[in-house]
Design goal:
The protein has helices spanning about 5-10, 15-25, 35-40, 45-60, 80-90, 95-105, 110-120, and strands at about 60-65, 70-75. It has about 130 residues and is mainly α. It has a two-stranded antiparallel sheet. β1 and β2 form a beta hairpin. It is elongated and about 50 Å long.
Length: about 130
């Protein structure tokens, strides 16, 4: 029989990474795994935090710098930058980029289309 209590506490995939990224985004300087662990609401094991930070580094979402015998981590991009990276990665995986972009543009709201046009003209889009 499955442990229902444990299943109920299980997080959705990517939730811990998102929580750790939020801590990195809010930091004014690179953080050690212990610093990140202290700022998380959940009582996560130090090794779990190190694993998450290592995965974020391996994905290119976080950078790390040597500090003594350990590392300190910081986010590579803000939330908008991360979303743009994800979109680019999806686009890079498609054989017909033009068709994907055309389909994407046809599905934009009028407001988003205006923002995109302003950006293409060299504006800020805001």
């Amino acid at each position: 029989m499955r442990n229902r209590r444990k299943d109920a506490m299980r997080r959705a995939p990517g939730t811990l990474e998102a929580e750790v990224l939020a801590v990195l985004w809010n930091a004014e300087e690179p953080l050690s795994p212990a610093d990140v662990q202290a700022q998380l609401e959940d009582d996560l094991a130090y090794t779990t935090v190190v694993t998450i930070l290592t995965r974020l580094h391996d994905k290119g979402v976080a950078m790390r710098e040597k500090h003594g015998r350990s590392f300190r981590y910081h986010a590579v991009d803000d939330e908008a930058g991360l979303a743009a990276r994800k979109m680019t990665k999806v686009l890079d995986g498609e054989p017909d980029r033009g068709s994907v972009l055309a389909r994407f543009v046809t599905q934009l709201s009028e407001t988003d289309e205006e923002v995109l046009r302003a950006l293409l003209r060299g504006g800020t889009g805001s």
